[in-house]
Amino acid sequence: MLIIILTLLILNLTSFFPRTVIKYYTLTLKKYIKDYFKIIKKGEQYGIIEYTLIILFIIMGSLLLISSNDLVSVYLSIELQSYGLYLLCTIYRNSESSTSSGLTYFLLGGLSSCFILLGIGLIYANSGTTYLDHFYIITNISNIIQGEELYSSDIAYYIPYCLLLITIGFLFKISAAPFHFWSPDVYDGIPTIVTTFVSIIPKISILVILFYLVHFTNNIYILTEYTWTYSLLISSLLSLIIGTVMGLTQFRIKRLFAYSTISHVGFLLLALSINSVESIQSFIFYLIQYSISNLNAFFLLITIGYTLYFFDNNKIFDNYNININLIDKNNSPIQLLSQLKGYFYVNQTLALSLTITLFSFAGIPPLVGFFAKQMVLSAALQDGFIFLSLVAVFTSVIGAVYYLNIVKIMFFDIHSYEWKNLIFKSIPEEDIYKLPLSSSLSITISTLTLIILLFMLVPDQLLQLCNILSLVFFTSFI
């Protein structure tokens, strides 16, 4: 259900926003806007007829993956989802950066799929089964007859290592460290609208199937003195550190969001690997709030880019104050942090909405992101993961630096925006900065921002839902 809702919101952005803006300006400013045809051209990219079909393939693969009970169907579902993502990344054929990033994603994604297929093949070669239910039975029977060496050596010993190979492929798909190296380049190269989809939908489905694997194989460590979930803990630690440290050096905003996503994946993997009722509840809650916050951040990024289209800002600098020209600016209007300088004075509402979302990413109370991190850390401390909890706290504090840097740029840096050669005779001078947005986009951004901001006032429904889901899953598999 979460995947369907998020997809509808993203399709709402790609389908309605450009057309509504064009229609609005056509009705009011057609006589005065000299580059009117350029505005129409910005909507041509959404006329690709394969776009909706590819989205349907991705959603079908995600839903099949979540409902799969067999490793073969898991692999086929992942491939259906992945090939749709590869096509979506390269669908803007006139964009060189999009094409090269999509090719990189395809090559490295194919390599990760090889690890998944190898792990599945080894499991089938030794056990003769690929059903997840059978792994649950095997591990519990192993617990009963663990005194028989033949059974334990032939059945239970190899399973963690096969699952480790599968996990490597999964960790690549969700851009968790140390398999994260592809995501900053791909996120930065593909259009922002596609980045919105790639950064959210596949992570939900793959994290859910990882959640299933943890529960179906939670008794293997009794015999082998090794559990494959240790790899999740290691990946969680590396994701927290790498996502935070590398994010501090970024001046391209989508690369910064990519490293931010890596650090959030670290929290999700920490909750996933603990395997208790409290950790499952925190995992579900964190996944929901991360999806909402990340979706709102990218919506705001795209909207800010379109509102700045009517400004002539030639002074774009990188981190070393070197004037640069942006590549693929039509598909990714906002690429550098410096483009947000003084944006608060252009549109206060969007600037405040983005600030609230960034504060939630940082885990600042009383926003929803704070409660999500608090639940994960509480579950980790209850199970004795003190070191990882301390690392998570320190990385959250350090990671707040690059979120606050964006806020500082928007509110306190001096902007250099000037109107293009447009004539606005019908608009009063004091309202010249109030650019219209589509009603559907405005409602979506407002709703997501209010959920992030006002969660503390009505937390019962969502927390009860997470608690019920965690109890259902936990009691079904343990």
Automatic annotation (TrEMBL):
It is an enzyme of class 7 (translocase). Keywords: Membrane, Mitochondrion, Transmembrane, Transmembrane helix. Its EC number is 7.1.1.2. It is found in: Membrane. Residues 68-399 form the NADH:quinone oxidoreductase/Mrp antiporter transmembrane domain. The keyword Transmembrane applies. The chain crosses the membrane at residues 6-27, 48-66, 104-125, 155-172, 193-216, 228-249, 256-277, 283-311, 350-372, 384-411, 432-455. GO terms for cellular component: membrane. It is a multi-pass membrane protein. InterPro entries: NADH-Q_OxRdtase_suN/2 (IPR010096), ND/Mrp_TM (IPR001750). One of its GO terms (biological process) is ATP synthesis coupled electron transport. This is NADH-ubiquinone oxidoreductase chain 2. It comes from Ajellomyces capsulatus (strain H143).
